[in-house]
Amino acid sequence: MHGLEIETAVGSDIGRRYSANFDVTHLVEQPLLAVLADGMGEGPGSAPAGRTAVDIFVDHVTRGPEPGPDGFRDAVAAAHAEVSRIGRRTRDLAGCTLTAMVATSRECWLVQIGDSRVYRLRAGLLELLTTDHTMAWLGAVHGWYPFDSAQAASARYQLTRYIGHGGAPEPDVLSVTMRPGDRYLLCTDGVSEQVGYDDLRTFLGRNTPPRSVVTSLLAACDRAGGNDNASAIVIRVD
Fold first, then answer.
1. Is 141 a domain residue?
2. Are 162 and 40 spatial neighbours (Cβ–Cβ below 8 Å)?
3. Domain span including residue 33
4. What pTM, to 2 d.p., does this model score?
5. Tens-binned pLDDT, residue by residue, of the chain (238 aa)
6. How far apart are CA 30 and CA 46, in angstroms?
């Protein structure tokens, strides 16, 4: 992005629940290309789904002219096709979320499918820029059950959109304007489910390098129990 400088960092932690890390991250600072995926479950299709989806997305975005909304949708469609093939080959669930932030020469894009998230801290206000594609999100919005209820907890694992879904649903594609002072966080649900809103705002609001913020976030996930793989990408705009 013209006239802006960014500083970035990425980190991932296996946590205490799983024997392997099914999260996949990719980060290039200039031009910004931040991508993360979260595999579904711990079956044989989980890890290759995330790795494949990220690799295909990055290849589509970096090959040829600058991408736009149609290019991002094409990249997700290609990832759907290949991850679905993995599922047929392993005869097991193969799927993952995918969340990305991509800067072009004129604008910045968010690409979202699943329940990983993008937050922005601007002028002290922490906002969630993405929507969780889960039954829990729909239930909370429409008042089907309290957000902190047992029903909502179960519904968080019922994704309505993900890479590898049989219906090949499209991602959300959003344009955002970066401003000096912005702080962005891309994270898997292993972070958002274990670190509360106030702590996220505190960590992102510190005048420390993104590497320190990532370290603090992952340490907070561990203190909360380490119940999931946790991955975070932090972007600071100056």
1. yes
2. yes
3. 6-237
4. 0.95
5. 557 899 999 999 999 999 999 999 999 999 999 999 999 988 888 899 999 999 999 999 999 889 999 999 999 999 999 999 999 998 888 999 999 999 998 899 999 999 999 999 999 999 999 999 999 989 988 889 887 788 888 988 899 999 999 999 999 999 999 999 999 999 999 999 999 999 999 999 999 999 999 999 999 999 999 999 999 999 999 9
6. 30
Q: In total, how many domains does the chain have? A: 1
